[in-house]
Amino acid sequence: MHSLSTTTTSNHAFRFHFVKGLLTALIVLFGLGVFFFFIFNSGINANTRASFTGMITGDAHRPFVTRVFLPWLTRGITALFPASVHEAAKTLATSSDFMGSLLGEYNAPSDFALEALISLGLQLLCVQGFAFAFRGLFRKVYKTPALISELTTLVVLLGLAPMLFLGYLYDLPNLFLSTLGLYCIAAKLKRCYFLVLALAVLNKETAIVLAVPAILLFWDLQYPSFKKVSFGTLAQLGIFLTLRVPVSLLYRNNPGGFFEAHLADHIEMFRDYPVIGIISILIAAGMILLVFHKWRQKPAVAVLGAAPGLLLLVLFMFGGIAFEIRVFYEVYAAGFLCIISTLMARKMPLETSLPTMQEWLASMPVFLAGR
Q: What is the pLDDT of residues 276-316, one digit of tens each?
């Protein structure tokens, strides 16, 4: 009897690990699919003001050229290779139909073949990094049966599809680093968070919105300290200014500006395509409702992480091109956590192991009294 029980338990464990391994392999494959879909459909590097060559050499227009994380990392890795490797990469780009097609879609010239290949490798790592960072984040935020986190990760990868039709060099790193930063917040990894924040703001200045959910890193639910929260907030602001100001000064003479106005484009779109405009408004309203429905009962890290999306929406209206929903990568993971909670509320309510917004707000009087 004991032997039979042991065998049954062993079979269950084998099946569980087999299914888990299969789902993990599917996550990797889905991530690969997202990567190729992005490269072949986003028109990445097609904008002549933010061309691949211009971003790598530092000659692109502002504000694009100031988003330096991936270009600088690419240049640093490229510098490690001898001239023979550069020539081999160039030969591969001109002799291989697949590589030629890939670099063509990436809008990278053959003279920058090695830089392009390294950049593409980093883009792929960012997609896979996002997937596994989200899986870890989901596990930290919600208490769910085994394998739910893997299935949810597959769905979150599929959910990226509408955002992948327009892209820039820094988009996938933005998605990855923002999600990784949110994971560090949920896992209470302060040092790792500061490092991720530094990389994220080097990649794109709007990543500073991570400072909103990061307030939880310095918040003791029982005895919240105004001093600690202020220190954490100022430390993040210091990181932002220390990195962004020198980069802005470095490229101050490049053409362009710190902000591109596109409000007129949105007005023109609504005037020329009113039906599409109304549908866009309804979709946006629906998304906001799904994110913030019963927000007090949702995990604070998810709601605070998604809340800056309202600010990004305003910035999108004034500075984003119509239908350019890629501008919401910073809040995608947090927003998805909120939406999945709303959708699952009736049939399988998701329990959280982290403080809810209601619990966080309940500690606010103690925090304010401590000032």
A: 888 888 988 999 999 999 999 999 999 999 999 999 988 88
Burial class (CB in 10 A: 0-12, 13-18, 19+), 192: middle
Tokens at 248, concatenated: 């802005």
Contacts of 297 (CB under 8 A, 6+ apart): 356, 357, 358
CB 154 within 8 A of CB 34: no
Q: Which distant-in-sequence residues (6+ apart) come within 8 Å of 266 by Cβ?
A: 317, 322
Instruction: Tell me if 40 sits within 8 A of 104, measured CB to CB.
Output: no
Q: Which pLDDT value is given to residue 181?
A: 98
Q: Across-strand partners of 351?
A: 143
Whether the model pTM is above 0.70? yes
Of the candidates 41, 74, 245, the one whose C-alpha atom is nearest the C-alpha of residue 163 is: 41
Q: What percent of the chain has pLDDT over 70?
A: 96
Q: Which of 168, 167, 171 is nearest to 130 (CA)?
A: 171
Task: Give, in degrees to the nearest 5, the angle at Cα 258 between 252 and 261.
Answer: 145
pLDDT at 258: 77
- Closest residue by Cα to residue 56 from 7, 12, 117, 100: 117
